[in-house]
Design a protein that fits this description.
Distance between the termini: 71 Å
Number of helices: 14
Structural class: alpha/beta
CATH superfamily of the largest domain: Type I PLP-dependent aspartate aminotransferase-like (Major domain)
Largest sheet: 7 strands, mixed
CATH class of the largest domain: Alpha Beta
Strand order of the largest sheet: 4-12-11-10-9-5-6
CATH architecture of the largest domain: 3-Layer(aba) Sandwich
Radius of gyration: 30 Å
Number of domains: 3
Helix content: 25-40%
Length: 467
């Protein structure tokens, strides 16, 4: 009964508020005109004085009226709003989104993962521990680079597993790798010229191009980045994925790594961005030390992410800055607020420290190796001599070239019909690369594939590309 009375009172007040507001905006009440008294309004509208008072208070708060002590309420002199049309225009059709659930779909995306394998209970346990332990810290804004305890744990982890030599102070944590790259472009702006691997990250290419930088696209050979291509160029930054080149999968040998480091040391202000996006996963060999671990001249900017090892929605990436760039960063971005969910960061801190992360990595590496082997076997059996597989035992994707006369556009249309998520190699060409007329390249991601989906995935891929 009480709830019903409250709803009726709420409805009456809103009706009175809307009616008076409409009269003010339509000119029925002129600017600076005195409104009828509360009692008069209540009598006119057939409501209680209390309902009128609530409505007037709302109009007063929004600036439609003002009050003068012992005189009453008056209409504000409101600036007329000139609108194009009386009615609000609907959102244009080309901007509308159509949400279609990905039902019965199979993903060969390099960006997705299998959430069924994520240790949710352990993560929640660490989150609860973080809430208890860091309750005080969570009530304040954390350091703009991320909480010190988290950076300390991360420094220890990448030092032990990737050989990265750094102090916690050198680590910048962000929710987006793209945002970190964008910040780097602002730090290294003396020579706005950068070298990118081709094929490579098209998203970074677009980002860097929009920032007004000169981009030199560099071809790859069997060892990865061809340093000869930029020896005569005035390049200040070099971006590379040496531990598992994206998208080809090439692992850069130590000799080529030394060539890159020598190039960086030849001239003041040169830096290498090392993107170590999925180096945690190697099959049949130990992890290869990072490029940064070989660099004694502080010319390598190391970047990493937890999107591959945990899940894309975690949104935690980081970079390790050399001391000179860290000094510039602190001055340039002193105004920034922390961009990450602090509770997630403290949760990650315990997830690593309590051993759950390494245990998860070991389990995932074993799982991915099994999925990868079965997928390779199925591809070879189904496609026979119509496929070339670039089998690099690392990461969460590999490159294939399929013999087909169909265009990339045709295959994309067929893939949607076959309900298979598929990324072609052409989208990662930063500028045109000539391909054979009877071959098409694809990035085959297997992180989200389930064992029972492998046969069906390969069959859909075969049907999509055949012809």
């Amino acid at each position: 009964m009480l709830k019903k009375q409250y709803v009726e009172r709420e409805y009456k007040y809103k009706k009175i508020y809307q009616q008076i507001k409409k009269q003010i905006l339509s000119g029925s009440y002129r600017p600076l005109e005195k409104l009828p008294s509360k009692r008069q309004l209540a009598d006119q509208l057939g409501v209680s004085t209390n309902s009128v008072v609530v409505a007037l208070d709302q109009l007063l708060a929004e600036g439609y009226i003002y009050s003068v002590e012992r005189k009453g309420y008056f209409v504000e002199n409101i600036t007329p709003y000139v609108a194009d049309e009386e009615e609000i225009k609907p959102l244009p059709k080309h901007l509308k989104e159509t949400h279609a659930p990905f039902l019965n779909a199979i993903s060969l995306s390099h960006m997705s993962t299998n959430m069924d394998l994520f240790p949710s209970k352990e993560w929640i346990k660490c989150e609860q521990k973080a809430l208890r332990t860091f309750q005080h810290e969570l009530s304040f804004m954390s350091h703009r680079q991320g909480p010190f305890e988290v950076r300390q744990t991360l420094a220890q982890y990448i030092g032990f597993n990737r050989g990265v030599r750094c102090e916690p102070e050198q680590i910048i944590i962000h929710s987006s790798s793209q945002a970190l790259i964008s910040q780097l472009l602002e730090l290294c702006c003396n020579n706005k010229s950068i070298a990118l691997e081709n094929p490579g990250y098209a998203r970074y290419y677009e980002l860097i191009q929009q920032q007004g930088w000169t981009i030199h696209t560099v071809p790859l050979d069997d060892s990865g980045f061809c340093i000869e291509a930029i020896q005569t160029k005035n390049v200040g930054l070099l971006y590379t994925t040496p531990s598992h080149q994206f998208p080809t999968g090439i692992i850069m040998p130590v000799s080529r790594r030394f060539e890159l480091l020598n190039w960086a040391s030849e001239k003041e202000g040169r830096y290498i961005i090392e993107d170590d996006y999925d180096s945690e996963f190697k099959y049949g060999t130990n992890n290869i030390p990072s490029l940064q671990s070989l660099d004694h001249n502080h010319r390598t900017i190391y970047t990493g992410t937890f999107s591959k090892t945990l899940f894309p929605g975690i949104r935690i990436s980081y970079m390790v800055l050399p001391p000179k760039l860290l000094e510039i960063y602190r001055k340039r971005f002193a105004y920034l607020l922390p961009p990450c969910n602090t509770l997630n960061l403290y949760t990650l801190h315990y997830f690593i420290k309590d051993g759950y992360y390494q245990k998860h990595l070991n389990r995932m590496a074993h799982h991915f190796e099994m999925i990868r082997k079965r997928l390779l076997k199925e591809l070879k059996q189904t496609f026979q001599n119509h496929i070339d597989i670039f089998d690099v035992p690392a990461g969460l994707h590999f490159l294939v070239r399929i013999k087909t006369r169909r265009s990339y556009e045709e295959i994309a249309i067929r893939a949607r019909k076959m309900n298979i998520q598929l990324f072609n190699l052409k989208r990662f060409y930063l500028n045109e690369i000539k391909e054979p007329n009877d071959e098409r390249g694809f990035i085959i991601g297997f992180a989200s594939l389930k064992e029972e989906e492998i046969k069906e995935a390969v069959q859909r891929l075969f049907t999509t590309t055949k012809g």
